TrEMBL record:
UniProt key word Cytoplasm: yes
Cellular component terms per the entry's GO annotation: cytosol; eukaryotic translation initiation factor 2B complex
Protein name: Translation initiation factor eIF2B subunit beta
GO molecular function terms noted in the UniProt entry: guanyl-nucleotide exchange factor activity; translation initiation factor activity
Cleaved signal peptide residues: none
Lineage summary: Eukaryota, Metazoa, Spiralia, Gnathifera, Rotifera
């Protein structure tokens, strides 16, 4: 299924064609959009000679192919034909793909505003976005120390520790059970996210909820790195461990050959839901926002008609 944001692009293009390019469009020039465009232009100018990541280019081509194949050979949004829609949709799709390509880089360039000298920063497991955030700050000679929770039973924190240490960033790997004990020494927490929900809550790696509760108890700021493409129009006002989760094989916890296997029910959740009241700041591609502002960003990214396609 096409990303819901692309459905919004289709609606906007059809309205532009029907009413003219300078009227009838529901694109809002908000401060957030202006900052995102300015950040994208800045990054493009600074890195115009850099090659884009090969995987992202392949992803872009795949999205374009999927869009072409998925458009029905019938009218969209009233009397606008697919033949009239396709050129403008492809232009908007290229812009959207470029925004995705640059989103992590634009986010990482905000690192100096959030990472200060001689701070101790705690993170959980491995996140590519968080890794680039740390590396950008280190490349600008900012001195800081990173505590990394190992994220058992998958131990992705070990990968993060290796990658950061290769960039000459001081790291310390900490067991998950020691999170409460070390929280008093931490200046702030920086994590990635699987998805950012419309109410400002988020789904992230298992163990994030416990981490957020400990941070709240010690009044340690919890910062979440969330590129634009991770914003979701879904609302999850209360904790539902089934709705926001996946459950892999319990083999990681207890071997199938164990004598205790027949007498135990083992559940291995992959993700936690963290409510918005436990989050201090959302760091997006353009600027930082409070969780209460996420609904506004979501309303700009998605059409209200597409927010609940399954129910429709």
């Amino acid at each position: 299924m096409l990303p819901i944001h692309i459905l919004k692009l289709i609606r906007e293009v059809s309205v532009r064609i029907i009413h003219g390019r300078n009227e009838g469009s529901d694109i809002s020039l908000t401060l957030q959009a202006v900052l995102n465009d300015r950040a994208t232009m800045s990054t493009t100018n600074e890195d115009e000679n850099d090659n884009l990541d090969e995987n992202l280019q392949l992803k872009k081509q795949q999205i374009q192919a999927d869009l072409t194949e998925s458009l029905p050979m019938s009218n969209v949004e009233g009397s606008v034909s697919v033949q009239r829609l396709r050129p403008d949709i492809m232009d908007d799709l290229n812009w959207y793909s470029n925004e995705i390509d640059l989103s992590v880089k634009n986010l990482a360039q905000q690192a100096l505003a959030h990472i200060h000298a001689n701070e101790i920063i705690l993170t959980l497991g491995y996140s590519y976005t968080v890794e680039q955030f740390f590396k950008y700050a280190a490349s600008k000679k900012r001195q800081f120390h990173v505590f990394i929770l190992e994220h058992a039973p998958f131990f992705t924190g070990h990968k993060m520790a290796v990658n950061l240490s290769q960039a000459n960033i001081p790291v310390t790997v900490v067991t998950d059970s020691a999170v409460y004990a070390i929280m008093a020494r931490v200046n702030k927490i920086l994590i990635g996210t699987r998805s950012l929900l419309a109410n400002g809550g988020l789904t992230a790696k298992s163990g994030t909820y416990s981490l957020a509760l400990a941070a709240k108890n010690f009044n340690v700021p919890l910062l979440v790195c969330a590129p634009t493409y991770k914003f979701s129009p879904t609302y999850l006002p209360s904790f539902d461990p089934v709705m926001c989760n996946s459950f892999p094989s319990p083999e990681n916890i207890l071997s199938y050959q164990s004598s205790y296997q027949s007498s135990l029910d083992i559940v291995v959740p992959m993700h936690d839901y963290v409510p918005p009241e436990l989050v201090t700041l959302i760091i997006g591609s353009g600027m930082g926002n409070a969780p209460s502002y996420v609904y506004r960003i979501v309303s700009e990214l998605y059409s209200a008609e597409d927010n609940d396609l399954e129910r429709s």
